[in-house]
Structure to design on (310 residues):
């Protein structure tokens, strides 16, 4: 067995998020590094190769086991690993191959803590999401109320478009089967979107937990950014699948989401959108104080995204 660290091989370097496929799910099997390749081995010993360096986010469902070598290789090539519940509706844990930029973390925190800058960022998010300037002289809380009313209306419009019976958004991860078909499809679809958005946030060097609209959750900023793309990508797909009433709705939703992510070139758009949103705060990224100790061995510049660990 080899782990991909052979001195005869060139040094591994992550490729950028925009050049990768979005998601890969593993439900049953053992993930390992065999003969230098990242593979899933099923109960019959059959190997299936996963090009882990070209995947943004690897979702491990119940029944999947992973070796130390596989985790190390995924981290080295910048692939986010998430341990999730059935249908992807509960996140138990996640690796963190990126987010390794203190300058960007401090910049993000400074924007979130500055009242005026935060309002500017939130207004920019509103404009991107709805395609128009938000009402003037509104606080963040007031904009949240306006946004909530519009989102509720948009759900109703999509339900009507696809002929789906719709009551309201309801999601209980502890009682998955109790949800109706549209809500289950929406939950599965947004889980897909959150996975690739978190991978992009980490790749860009930012903190998933420091949000501007959402707060108090490990993925608050992920929710902020994912919401900018939700109604042009996964929500229409979820309602369309719900209208077809397939036997395995969650699987159908995943396939549809992967296709939409590819068609809309979403992975190419997330990081530039993050930069656009944060720049609206009009606070420059500060240089480190002169009395701080710089790295004794500077990191080598690579072709990967800024947040990937060297």
């Amino acid at each position: 067995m080899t782990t991909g660290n052979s001195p005869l091989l060139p040094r591994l370097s992550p490729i950028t998020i925009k050049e990768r496929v979005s998601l890969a799910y593993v439900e049953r099997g053992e993930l390992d590094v065999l003969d230098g390749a990242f593979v899933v081995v099923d109960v019959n010993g059959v190997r299936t190769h996963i090009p882990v360096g070209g995947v943004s986010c690897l979702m491990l469902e119940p029944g999947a086991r992973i070796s130390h070598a596989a985790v190390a290789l995924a981290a080295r090539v910048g692939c986010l690993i998430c341990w999730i519940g059935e249908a992807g509706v509960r996140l138990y844990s996640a690796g963190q191959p990126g987010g390794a930029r203190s300058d960007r973390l401090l910049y993000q925190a400074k924007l979130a803590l500055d009242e005026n800058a935060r309002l500017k960022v939130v207004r920019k998010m509103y404009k991107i999401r709805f395609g128009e300037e938000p009402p003037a002289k509104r606080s963040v809380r007031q904009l949240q109320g306006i946004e909530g009313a519009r989102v509720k209306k948009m759900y109703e419009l999509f339900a009507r478009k696809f002929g789906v019976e719709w009551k309201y958004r309801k999601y209980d991860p502890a009682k998955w089967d109790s949800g109706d078909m549209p809500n289950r499809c929406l939950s599965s679809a947004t889980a897909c979107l959150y996975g690739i958005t978190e991978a992009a946030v980490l790749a860009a060097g930012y903190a998933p937990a420091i949000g501007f609209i959402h707060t108090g959750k490990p993925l608050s900023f992920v929710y902020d950014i994912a919401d900018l793309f939700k109604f042009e990508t996964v929500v229409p797909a979820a309602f369309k699948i719900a209208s077809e009433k397939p036997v395995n709705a969650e699987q159908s939703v995943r396939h549809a989401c992967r296709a939409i992510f590819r068609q809309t070139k979403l992975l190419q758009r997330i990081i530039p959108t993050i930069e656009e949103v944060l720049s609206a705060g009009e606070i420059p990224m500060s240089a480190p104080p002169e009395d701080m100790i710089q790295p004794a061995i500077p990191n080598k510049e690579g072709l990967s995204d800024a947040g990937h660990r060297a």
